[in-house]
């Protein structure tokens, strides 16, 4: 189009520049923290780092990755993501599948029953009192069970299942396959795209959540990586105990030639450690996330 | 359990047609059962616990045997200055977050929509979605680093002032706390917020734009009369949902950003600190109960108004 007006061309350039600025604002804080995490901690003290390390050093990660609390909480975080995601998918998929079955009485009432808690709940305290009665406080299951059913996800899976033609299941039924086999052998393989999206959403939720630990867990063995990050940011004791352990292990000490580590540098390395799994897989996953949300928005 | 179904299904049909239908459906009910049980246990069972708000909860007596005090705790809420302040802060923060955070993704979506499809557009989208996938505490951590005494912002300001200026402890300034909360909310969610709007823009019939072009409408007019009306439905639906959360201040953000120099609380931070940390269960339950009630009323109210004026409803 060569008949674009001058003002429109100016607008286009301005628009693109503004978008570049916005993207820089989105990415720079992260790159800066990455630079601090990979920079020599003694050198970092003077500030002035932008988006690349001035003196490359792995001292921060060396201290983090040998810390017992970090190792333990990483293990808990991974277990939580794997078990929590698998269990939630099982619950949500079977429920969504049942909703697509023809001739099932009372579907409407069951849907309303499942929907009401979306709009009204008792709040944190009744939940806390219930968990304490159910012995879910300081119990790994508190990470898995309460969040396993999600109406929103169930509805999205259901919308997807409606797009699969009945004819496949019908012919299998004529061949004498039972309902369970039909679900497992015909519908589940065809549902992989939506299951992938839901698995990603759920896994990211489980990896990122830290308030469950804050509210219901006091046993240090059950801390998650995100919770440790919160402690490092907000509580001096966590940082102090990490330094003590590092000194005992001989990784860092003020006296010898080992590189010293500073709280700021440890903080930066910890932010990277807790976010890196997401950042690494993110470019591959981004499309799927978008697919899920648009599917939900269009269908409902 | 599965064996049983297989047995039932493969058994020769016996009994009345009704029994057969029920047996066939039992598979469906069994699939739903875990969801129903989990929802019942974790969403419905806690509901009666709300009565803790109207009792003087005592751990040793338990919920049912604790003495009733009626609306004592609710009255207390409005008489305690700290709680009144927290309610005010919650409302103020939510309103400002909506005011800034709600139009932001619409504007960004319109801006992204103006670029031609290609690598640049995809990169802008991909990178602007990224913060959404970081946890709130990681975002708080990024803020701690970015606004640190020796962080990049202070470096920049120092450079601009020619090395004359003082380094500033941004996050310890009471007057900057609220702006920081708003900044971080928008920073984290603005990119992701565009997804829904961009999808809505793509679903607008292209022939509308063609017709407008023939009628001599410039791009600005096309957006004003086609794009924005095309986004109406999406916008109103999202607004209803957002209004329902007016009283649910972002606990993770506020709690994460609180520090020794800041005196700022919202309802959810009070519920946590006075309820779970200090064990004032009744008081915290009363605050939480009011919060839930208001949220429900707001959602219903916003939905009713929308239904009457625009015909759009979430139900």
Automatic annotation (TrEMBL), chain A:
Transmembrane listed as a keyword: yes
Entry GO terms, CC: plasma membrane
A UniProt-annotated Pfam family: BPD_transp_1
Subcellular localization(s) per the UniProt record: Cell membrane
SUPFAM superfamilies xref list: MetI-like
Residues annotated as transmembrane: 16-38, 70-96, 108-128, 140-161, 182-204, 265-285
PROSITE patterns linked: ABC_TM1
Keyword terms, alphabetized: Cell membrane, Membrane, Transmembrane, Transmembrane helix, Transport
Main location: membrane
InterPro entries noted in UniProt: MetI-like, MetI-like_sf
UniProt GO BP: transmembrane transport
Gene3D superfamilies registered for this protein in UniProt: MetI-like
CDD domains: TM_PBP2
Domain named ABC transmembrane type-1: residues: 70-284
Annotated family: Belongs to the binding-protein-dependent transport system permease family.
Name under which the protein is recorded: Putative aldouronate transport system permease protein
Organism lineage: Bacteria, Bacillati, Bacillota, Bacilli, Bacillales
Automatic annotation (TrEMBL), chain B:
Stretches that traverse the bilayer: 27-54, 93-115, 127-147, 176-204, 224-247, 281-300
One Pfam family this sequence matches: BPD_transp_1
Gene3D superfamilies in the record: MetI-like (1.10.3720.10)
Domain ABC transmembrane type-1 residues, every copy: 87-302
Cellular component, GO, one term: plasma membrane
The keyword Transport is assigned to this record: yes
Cellular compartments annotated: Cell membrane
GO biological process per UniProt: transmembrane transport
Predominant location: membrane
Family: Belongs to the binding-protein-dependent transport system permease family.
Name by which UniProt lists this protein: Putative aldouronate transport system permease protein
Lineage, uppermost ranks: Bacteria, Bacillati, Bacillota, Bacilli, Bacillales
């Amino acid at each position: 189009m060569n008949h674009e007006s001058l003002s429109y061309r100016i607008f286009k350039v301005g628009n693109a520049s503004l978008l570049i600025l916005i993207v820089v604002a989105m990415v720079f804080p992260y790159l800066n923290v990455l630079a601090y995490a990979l920079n020599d901690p003694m050198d970092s003290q003077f500030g002035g780092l932008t988006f690349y390390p001035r003196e490359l050093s792995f001292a921060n990660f060396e201290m983090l990755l040998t810390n017992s609390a970090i190792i333990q909480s990483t293990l808990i975080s991974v277990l939580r993501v794997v078990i929590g995601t698998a269990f939630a998918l099982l619950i949500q998929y079977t429920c969504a599948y049942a909703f697509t079955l023809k001739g099932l009485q009372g579907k409407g009432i069951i849907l309303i029953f499942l929907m009401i808690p979306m709009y009204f709940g008792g709040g944190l305290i009744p939940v806390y009192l219930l968990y304490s009665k159910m012995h879910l406080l300081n119990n790994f299951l508190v990470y898995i069970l309460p969040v396993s059913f999600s109406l929103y996800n169930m509805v999205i899976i259901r919308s997807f299942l409606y797009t699969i033609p009945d004819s496949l299941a019908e012919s299998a039924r004529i061949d004498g396959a039972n309902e369970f086999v039909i679900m497992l052998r015909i519908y589940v393989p065809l549902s992989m795209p939506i299951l992938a999206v839901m698995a990603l959403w759920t896994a990211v939720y489980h990896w990122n959540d830290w308030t469950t630990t804050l509210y219901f867990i006091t046993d240090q063995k059950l801390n998650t990586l995100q919770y440790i990050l919160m402690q490092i940011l907000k509580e001096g004791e966590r940082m102090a105990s990490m330094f003590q352990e590092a000194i005992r292990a001989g990784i860092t000490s003020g006296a010898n030639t080992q590189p010293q580590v500073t709280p700021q540098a440890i903080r930066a390395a910890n932010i990277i450690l807790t976010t890196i799994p997401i950042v690494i897989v993110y470019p591959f996953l981004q499309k799927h996330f978008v697919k899920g949300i648009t599917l939900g928005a269009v269908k409902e | 359990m599965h064996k049983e179904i297989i047995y039932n299904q493969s058994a020769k049909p016996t009994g009345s047609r009704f029994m057969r239908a029920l047996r066939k459906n039992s598979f469906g009910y069994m699939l739903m059962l875990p969801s129903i049980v989990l929802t019942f246990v974790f969403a419905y069972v806690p509901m009666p616990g709300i009565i803790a708000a109207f009792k003087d909860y005592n751990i040793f007596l338990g919920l049912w045997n604790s003495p009733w005090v009626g609306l004592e705790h609710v009255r207390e809420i409005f008489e305690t200055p700290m709680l009144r302040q927290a309610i005010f802060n919650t409302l103020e923060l939510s309103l400002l977050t909506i005011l800034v955070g709600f139009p932001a993704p619409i504007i960004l979506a319109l801006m992204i929509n103006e670029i031609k499809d290609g690598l640049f557009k995809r990169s802008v989208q991909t990178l602007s979605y990224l913060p959404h996938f970081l946890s709130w505490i990681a975002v708080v951590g990024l803020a701690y680093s970015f606004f640190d005494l020796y962080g990049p912002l202070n470096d920049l300001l120092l450079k601009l002032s020619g090395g004359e200026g003082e380094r500033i402890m941004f996050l310890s300034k009471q007057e900057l706390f609220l702006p920081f909360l708003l900044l971080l909310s928008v920073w984290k969610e603005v990119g992701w917020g565009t997804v829904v709007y961009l999808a809505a823009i793509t679903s607008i019939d292209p022939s509308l734009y063609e017709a407008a072009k023939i009628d001599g409408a410039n791009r600005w007019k096309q957006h004003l009369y086609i794009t924005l009306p095309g986004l109406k439905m999406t916008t109103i639906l999202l607004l209803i949902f957002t209004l329902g959360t007016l009283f649910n201040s972002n606990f993770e953000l506020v709690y994460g950003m609180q520090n020794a120099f800041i005196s700022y609380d919202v309802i959810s931070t009070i519920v946590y600190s006075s309820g779970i940390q200090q064990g004032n269960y009744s008081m915290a339950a009363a605050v939480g109960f009011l919060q839930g009630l208001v949220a429900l009323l707001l959602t219903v109210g916003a939905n009713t108004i929308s239904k009457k004026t625009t015909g759009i409803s979430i139900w």
